[in-house]
Amino acid sequence: MSALASVIRARARREVGPPFRPGPPEVVLAYPSAYRAGMSSLGYQVVLARLRAAGIAAERCFLPDDVAGHERSRTPPMSEESLTPLGRFRVIGVSLAYELELAGLITLLRLAGIPPLRRDRGPDHPRILLGGPLTFSNPLPAAPFVDAMLIGEADGTCVPAFQAAFDDREAWLDAVAALPGGYVPERHGEALPPVAQADDALLPAASCILTPDTELSSMFLIEGERGCHRTCTFCVMRRSTNGGMRRVPAETLIERVPADVHKVGLVGAAISDHPELVPLLEALVGRGHQVSLSSLRADRIARKPRIAELLRQSGARSLTVASDAASERLRKDIEKGTTEAHLRACADVARELRFETLKVYMMLGVPGETDDDVDELVRFSLELSARTRVSLGVAPFVAKRNTPLDGVPFAGIKLVDSRLRRLTRGLRGRVEVKPTSARWAWVEWCLAQGGWAAGEAALAAVDAGGRFSDWQAAFRVVEEVA
Predict the structure, then answer these.
(1) Whole-angstrom Cα distance, residue 27 to residue 91?
(2) What SS3 state is found at 104?
(3) In this structure, what DSSP letter does residue 89 have?
(4) Is 64 helix (H, G, I), strand (E, B) or coil?
(5) Is the peptide bond before 204 cis (omega within 30 degrees of 0)?
(6) Most buried among 100, 353, 399, 468, by the most CB within 10 A?
C-alpha cells in the first residue's frame, strides 16, 4: 500500500457519517486544496450529500499535502473511498473557493496525468464540471481548464448536471447550458450567465461527514441564513446578490443539529444579523453544544451583547469582528456601517466576559486610503488595547467582480507593505498584527479581474515553479499581449 493510500485509510477510520455505497454512475468531487480545507467546506459537503442521495456514487479527492513528494514518486491523487486514481473517473466535479486555488486545480490535474487545458484533452479524458464560491464573482480564469460550470448556487442543479454527464458530450453540454447558471466556455465565450439562486426549500445546507482532520475539527456546520442584506461595496455577497438575506427559522436549525455533536458552526454571510440568533444560541448552548459563528458584526455585538455572552458560555476564547477599513471615513465610503463606538463596545464586552482576545479583521489599500487613515487605525487600536487584548488580522484590499468596486486597481505591493510597516511601528508591539502577503494579494487581484488569458498565465506560472516571480513573468506576458 502506498503512503498516500495509508494516509487515506487512516483518516477514513476517523470520519463519522453515512457509509459510502459504491455503484454506477461513478463520479468524483475534487477539491484543489488539502483534505483539511476541503472537508471544512460546507458547499463541497452539500453537493456530495445531494449526489449520493440521488443514487450517484460520488467519491472525493483532494490535493495531496506533499505535492513535491507525489511528483517525485509519480503517485497520482486517489479517491478517499476506493483509492481509484483521479484520472480514471469519467466525470470530475471541482469546487473552487477562491482565486489562488486555481494553482491547486492545475497541479491536481497534472498529478493525475490529465492535460490541464480543455483543448488538449480528448474523448477518453474525464469531463470536468466546476462550481463553488468563486463562481459568484469571477470564475473566468478557470474556464480554459473545464468543460462546463454551474454559476452561483448549485443546490438544485448539481444532480441533473452530473446525471447528464454520462450522455453524449454535446448532449451533456446542452443539458448544462439549459440549467440556471449553466456556463459552457466553448459555446458562451467569456459571457457568464446570471448567478443562479437555489429554491429556499433546499435550505439549510449542513455537514454530512464529520472528521477531526480538518481546520474545523469535528464541527457540525449548518447554514443559518444565506446571502446578506447589507450593502458593503467590496463584498460579493452584498444585498444585490441573490435576493439579499434568506434566513432559516431557528426551530428548523435546532431540529437539524444532531444532539450528539459537541461543536456546532452556524454559517452565513450575515449570520449575526439573524433575528432569532439569541434564542437559537440559548437553545444550542443549553443543550451543551459549543457554538461558533462564521461572521460577527461589531454593531450586533454592541447592541446585543447577549450573543457574545452565549458564545463565551459555550467555550469561545476569542471574540472576532471585522472593521474592514482603517478609519471611520473609509468605512463610510465602503458602506461598512461599523463605527468606533461599536468597536469600543466590543472591546468592553470582551473584557467583561474575559475573552482572551478581541480579533479585528481589516483591509489596507482600500480606495482613497492615506497615511492619515493608517495613523487613525494606530490611535484607535491602541485605545482598544487599553480595554482588552487586541489582535489585528490585516489583508490587502482586492477588488472583486460583481461588486461596486469591481475594476478598482490594486493599491500596489510597495504601498501596502509601507502602510503595514507604518501600522506595526505605530503599535509598538502593544497590539498583535497578523498580515497576509501583499505579493499574493496582487496575484489574487490579477485573477479576480482577469479572463481566460489570466487562466493561461496561471498555467504558465505553475509550470514554471509557482514562485511569485513566475506569476509576475506570466502576467507580464498577458499585459504585453493585451
Answers:
(1) 5
(2) helix
(3) -
(4) coil
(5) yes
(6) 399
Q: What is the 3-state secondary structure (H, E, C) of 373-436?
A: HHHHHHHHHHHHHCCCCEEEEEEECCCCCCCCCCCCCCCCHHHHHHHHHHHHHHHCCCCEEEEC
Q: Do residues 226 and 295 lie in contact, with contact meaning Cβ atoms separated by under 8 Å?
A: no
Quickly tell me which residue has 502577503 as its cell.
Answer: 437
For residue 442, the one-letter residue type is W
Rounded CA gap, 45 and 207, in Å?
Answer: 6
Let me know: does 97 contact 34? Beta carbons within 8 Å: no
Phi, psi of 363 (to 5 degrees): -120, 145
User: Rounded CA gap, 263 and 316, in Å?
Assistant: 11
175, with CB counted inside 10 A (0-12, 13-18, 19+), is middle
Tell me which residues of the chain have a pLDDT lower than 70: 1, 480-482
pLDDT digits (tens, 9 = 90+) for 401-432: 999 999 999 999 999 999 999 999 999 989 99
CA 22/CA 403 separation, integer angstroms: 42
- Report the DSSP pairing between strands 390-396 and 357-364: parallel
Amino acid 227 reads G
Pairing type for strands 148-150 and 127-131 reads parallel
Q: Give the gyration radius of the chain's Cα atoms.
A: 23
Helix (H, G, I), strand (E, B), or coil: what is residue 149? strand
The CA-to-CA distance between both ends of the chain, in Å, stands at 49
Name all domains of the chain by residue range, CATH numbers in brackets: 3-188 (3.40.50.280), 218-295 (3.30.750.210), 313-450 (3.30.750.200)
Q: What is the pLDDT of residues 75-110, one digit of tens each?
A: 899 999 999 999 999 999 999 999 999 999 999 999
Name residue, grid cell 474575559: 354
Q: 169, 127 in Cβ contact below 8 A?
A: yes
The C-alpha angle with vertex 199 and arms to 193 and 205, in degrees rounded to 5, equals 105
